[in-house]
Amino acid sequence: MKPTTHTISIEQPRAVLVSLITPQIKRQETYAPDYSLAELVSLAETAGVEVLATLTQNKENIDSKWFVGKGKAEELKQLLEEHDANTAIFDQELSGAQVRNLEQFLDVKIIDRTQLILDIFAQRAKTREGIIQVELAQLSYLLPRLAGQGKNLSRLGGGIGTRGPGETKLETDRRHIRDRISELKQQLQEVMRHRTLHRERRKKTGVFQVALVGYTNAGKSTLLRQMTQADVYVENQLFATLDPTSRTLELPSGKDVVLTDTVGFIQNLPHDLVAAFRATLEEACEADLILHVVDGSSDMMPTQMKVVSQVLRDLEAHQTEQITLFNKVDLCTPEQREMLTTEGEFLRISAYREEDLDRIRELIESRLMGDCKTFRIPAEKGDVISLLYRVGEVLENEVDGNDMLFQVRVNNKEYDKLGYMLAAYASEQALHKGENSEHV
């Protein structure tokens, strides 16, 4: 007799989406109510949720007990019953008490925007670093809400809101969660230490770092794949890729730079998530050049650009030199393409057009390569001479006695980096020979 097998089925999340609009929320510079709700629909679908209906309420203030008004909560209950929905997803962040009250009244799973984004990140994280960061963000979100958690703690059927650390996370008490958070922070510190060492090693070898940043689904991963033949996941969905990917990009002159794809930004990105992913986003902070990839075909393009600019300011990366790439111009009308302008340098491109990729490479090279400098290096200093070839474009070289004279086009930032290695040689040469050649 064959043994009987039992299959545990996870109920498909079927949700009604809820958005509350208050004067305070509307005053947020990057907030657009209709777009935010449409984005919530995309987020829910990305998480594998079947969206059945949406509900919006305009209210003067947030209800401390129900979040929405009691009348709207009753309307939501009827809507959930009509559509046989088992989940309600809110576009704003809820307190633990609000979750408990709504669950008791509605008898469905209650998820807010933050939990939904964290759940998507939990699905996307593949590397050890990404998994640590997601769990840290989830636990940081859960800890202050433990007292208010209602049926969420007992709904162990899986699905949205329960991925990542898993059910055991939901059964632990505050002390255990705090211990786990401390442990994860230590692990993340170790990951950050290794990442910092890799960055320092790249700096010492004179390799330029270029970071791709932008709103989620703007086409960053597609651009990385097309320019470097990187084996990265590309899909037309929010947060298709999460873990940062770095690949070598060869410029027209033959010089190599490191091109890094960072996690996509989104409006109302959870603060815990920004904090947890700081190690990842530091790639943008440490970059010599930032390529801001913009979905030129999006109706919400100006808002998306503001969100990215705000996150870069929060990371103190807004001072880094930037080039704006208006992507997906092949999806725009000629009139729309003409409207794609911004302050500073920009290109209108399609990530699938090779001639546009060549223009990007040429622009990167022109921005990273700087003025022509003259260097006098002792001929026996092969390591220093090799460094000159790596960090700049050597235009001419000639022998002058026991020294080599180099005419090098080098970026000002790299010129400064050369200082600590060449200062001793330059000072010695200046003292003994009184040369007028430019030294670091």
TrEMBL record:
<protein>
    <recommendedName>
        <fullName>GTPase HflX</fullName>
    </recommendedName>
</protein>
<keyword id="KW-0963">Cytoplasm</keyword>
<dbReference type="Pfam" id="PF01926">
    <property type="entry name" value="MMR_HSR1"/>
</dbReference>
<feature type="binding site">
    <location>
        <position position="241"/>
    </location>
    <ligand>
        <name>Mg(2+)</name>
    </ligand>
</feature>
<dbReference type="InterPro" id="IPR042108">
    <property type="entry name" value="GTPase_HflX_N_sf"/>
</dbReference>
<feature type="binding site">
    <location>
        <position position="221"/>
    </location>
    <ligand>
        <name>Mg(2+)</name>
    </ligand>
</feature>
<feature type="binding site">
    <location>
        <begin position="261"/>
        <end position="264"/>
    </location>
    <ligand>
        <name>GTP</name>
    </ligand>
</feature>
<comment type="function">
    <text>GTPase that associates with the 50S ribosomal subunit and may have a role during protein synthesis or ribosome biogenesis.</text>
</comment>
<dbReference type="InterPro" id="IPR025121">
    <property type="entry name" value="GTPase_HflX_N"/>
</dbReference>
<dbReference type="InterPro" id="IPR027417">
    <property type="entry name" value="P-loop_NTPase"/>
</dbReference>
<feature type="binding site">
    <location>
        <begin position="214"/>
        <end position="221"/>
    </location>
    <ligand>
        <name>GTP</name>
    </ligand>
</feature>
<feature type="coiled-coil region">
    <location>
        <begin position="167"/>
        <end position="201"/>
    </location>
</feature>
<dbReference type="Pfam" id="PF16360">
    <property type="entry name" value="GTP-bdg_M"/>
</dbReference>
<feature type="binding site">
    <location>
        <begin position="327"/>
        <end position="330"/>
    </location>
    <ligand>
        <name>GTP</name>
    </ligand>
</feature>
<dbReference type="GO" id="GO:0005525">
    <property type="term" value="F:GTP binding"/>
</dbReference>
<dbReference type="GO" id="GO:0005737">
    <property type="term" value="C:cytoplasm"/>
</dbReference>
<dbReference type="Pfam" id="PF13167">
    <property type="entry name" value="GTP-bdg_N"/>
</dbReference>
<keyword id="KW-0175">Coiled coil</keyword>
<comment type="similarity">
    <text>Belongs to the TRAFAC class OBG-HflX-like GTPase superfamily. HflX GTPase family.</text>
</comment>
<feature type="binding site">
    <location>
        <begin position="239"/>
        <end position="243"/>
    </location>
    <ligand>
        <name>GTP</name>
    </ligand>
</feature>
<keyword id="KW-0460">Magnesium</keyword>
<comment type="subunit">
    <text>Monomer. Associates with the 50S ribosomal subunit.</text>
</comment>
<dbReference type="InterPro" id="IPR032305">
    <property type="entry name" value="GTP-bd_M"/>
</dbReference>
<keyword id="KW-0479">Metal-binding</keyword>
<dbReference type="InterPro" id="IPR006073">
    <property type="entry name" value="GTP-bd"/>
</dbReference>
<feature type="domain" description="Hflx-type G">
    <location>
        <begin position="208"/>
        <end position="372"/>
    </location>
</feature>
<dbReference type="GO" id="GO:0043022">
    <property type="term" value="F:ribosome binding"/>
</dbReference>
<dbReference type="InterPro" id="IPR016496">
    <property type="entry name" value="GTPase_HflX"/>
</dbReference>
<dbReference type="GO" id="GO:0046872">
    <property type="term" value="F:metal ion binding"/>
</dbReference>
<keyword id="KW-0342">GTP-binding</keyword>
<dbReference type="GO" id="GO:0003924">
    <property type="term" value="F:GTPase activity"/>
</dbReference>
<feature type="binding site">
    <location>
        <begin position="350"/>
        <end position="352"/>
    </location>
    <ligand>
        <name>GTP</name>
    </ligand>
</feature>
<dbReference type="InterPro" id="IPR030394">
    <property type="entry name" value="G_HFLX_dom"/>
</dbReference>
<keyword id="KW-0547">Nucleotide-binding</keyword>
